[in-house]
Specification:
43% helix; 280 residues; 7 strands; five-stranded antiparallel beta sheet; 9 helices; alpha+beta
Length: 280
């Protein structure tokens, strides 16, 4: 069957395709753009189709594990197959490839577990992990989205992805502002004292990250665990990934000019230069 809608992002002449695949993909796009799981009626409306039609597609997507449905809430969300595809795509970015090549030498210098994170639909997402022989047991895995205000990774992305935090006109800046506000509300509800709970506190924390050139978290993401995240920029000055080091405070040097921070920052600066970035 010939597709009747214009091909996405392609000026080439229309070629034969499977229209039902293109129609169903609108549901996956709607889920990826949503800040969280959706009810059937809301998902169908976002994709521009009836609930009955959307349900038929979702049944097939569930069989393929592209979509999952919570049995208790009946909400739909992206499934493990969608995550697998997304991580595979992200890991093939040139910047991630180059960064992965530098992790083992960096581990030899620091002796700590290292990771790479990029900005995903829900926030800074871990896409690669190199575990040190002295690894501390942490409940983190590939695909995890890091909190913006209690993790070094989140603080790094929040600081360098959007200096104008409250911008709402463009993505991902507008989405970043919404995510920060949601996390602030959770921190306030939990009455946390170790992380920012006001926009003024957020501004102070981000100013320190920019002044230091990297982010640090000690005991805020996990008890007894410290971490740094150094930003990597491309030729246009855009943040493309974060290089992360984390470990137990028993063996991890949390000093800004210590045995972990210095080589991590140097590796991130060198990768940025290799990607064409010229610091002001």
């Amino acid at each position: 069957m010939k597709a009747t809608a214009p091909a996405r992002n392609s000026p080439a002449p229309q070629r034969a395709g499977i229209q039902s695949v293109e129609v169903g993909f609108a549901l996956l796009e709607a889920l990826s753009a949503s800040p969280g799981p959706l009810m059937l009626r809301d998902l169908a409306a976002a994709a521009g189709m009836s609930a009955a039609k959307a349900h038929r597609y979702l049944v097939s997507f569930q069989r393929l594990e592209l979509v999952v449905q919570d049995a208790a809430t009946t909400l739909y969300d992206l499934g493990p197959a969608a995550l697998k595809l997304g991580l595979a795509s992200l890991s093939r970015l040139d910047s991630v490839k180059l960064a992965r090549q530098r992790l083992l030498p960096l581990m030899a210098q620091t002796g700590q577990t290292l990771a790479l994170a990029v900005w995903g639909n829900q926030g800074p997402t871990l896409v690669h992990w190199e575990e040190s022989p002295r690894a501390v047991t942490v409940n983190l895995r590939l695909g995890d989205v890091m909190p913006l205000l209690s993790s070094a990774t989140g603080l790094c992305f929040t600081a360098f992805l959007s200096p104008r935090l409250l911008a709402t006109a463009a993505r991902p800046q507008g989405r970043l502002a919404l995510l920060v506000k949601d996390e602030l509300a959770r921190n306030q509800k939990l009455a946390r004292q170790d992380v920012p709970t006001t926009m003024a506190g957020v501004a102070d924390a981000l100013e320190e990250v920019r002044r230091r050139g990297m982010a640090r978290a000690v005991n805020t993401l996990l008890p007894g665990v410290a971490g740094f995240c150094a930003p990597v920029f491309d030729a246009d000055g855009h943040l493309v990934l974060g290089m992360v080091a984390l470990g137990s405070l028993a063996t991890f040097d949390p000093d800004w000019d210590g045995a972990v921070a210095r080589p991590l920052a140097a590796a991130a600066r060198q990768l940025s230069r290799d990607l064409g970035f010229e610091a002001a």
